Amino acid sequence: MIWSLKYLPEAEKDYKSLARSQQLVVDKAIKKVKTNPLPQDEGGYGKPLGHKNGNNLTGYLKIKLRGEGIRIVYKLIRTEEQMLIVVIGIREDSEVYEIASSRIKKHNL
Description:
5-stranded mixed beta sheet, two-stranded antiparallel sheet, 7 strands, about 30% strand
């Protein structure tokens, strides 16, 4: 089953700001993960986040693209079988997670 995909407006801007080669890597990763975006402990590809550098990201998951230095933070909306992309960033962990936390608060997620 493939889950539908939705981006926060800011995450769309994150994506568009990437170089085309990076966009292709992100597209490939998201395409793979959305076939089973559940947490790893439920047999999926998602890596659960918890408290990161003072940011409570419990209930959110990440895709980490080591070669590109890109992190993608997303939330599952299970009732709609939808993956909500919160942030896509070429940043250090702490900065990506701070951005995710501020967007979560801004959008009341």
